[in-house]
């Protein structure tokens, strides 16, 4: 339960901070009509969800492919590409 709560808090805090990134702020500043904000929010959150789920899925697949672990976990995607 503690690990789940910690993971959820980390995910939510990351998501909240992401909105303040300059490359995203300029996109929201470029919206000409208030009515477009909802569409931009849906597209942005959908894309962020897809990308984060893909990153997590990559990690789970790597656990199955490399049960002994890797020396450098940051290179997991490269090792998966070389293996597959």
Give the arrangement of secondary structure elements.
Blueprint: H1 2-18, H2 22-29, H3 36-65, H4 76-83
N- to C-terminal distance? 35 Å
Outline:
elongated
Number of strands: 0
For the largest beta-sheet, the strand count, sense and barrel status come to: none
Topology order in helix (H) and strand (E) letters: HHHH
Average pLDDT score: 84
Question: Which class best fits the helix and strand makeup?
Answer: mainly alpha
**Helical percentage:** over 70%
How many H/I helices? 4
* Beta fraction: under 5%
Radius of gyration: 17 Å
Overview of this protein structure:
It is a single chain. The protein has 4 helices and no strands. The protein is mainly alpha-helical. The model has no long low-confidence stretch (mean pLDDT about 85).
Short description:
The chain has 84 residues and is mainly alpha-helical.
Keywords:
84 residues, mainly alpha, 4 helices, elongated
């Amino acid at each position: 339960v503690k690990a789940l709560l910690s993971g959820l808090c980390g995910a939510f805090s990351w998501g909240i901070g992401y909105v303040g990134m300059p490359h995203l702020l300029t996109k929201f500043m470029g919206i000409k009509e208030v009515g477009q904000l909802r569409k931009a929010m849906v597209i942005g959150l959908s894309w962020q969800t897809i990308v984060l789920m893909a990153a997590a899925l990559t990690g789970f697949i790597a656990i199955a492919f490399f049960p002994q672990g890797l020396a450098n976990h940051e290179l997991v995607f490269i090792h998966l590409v070389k293996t597959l």
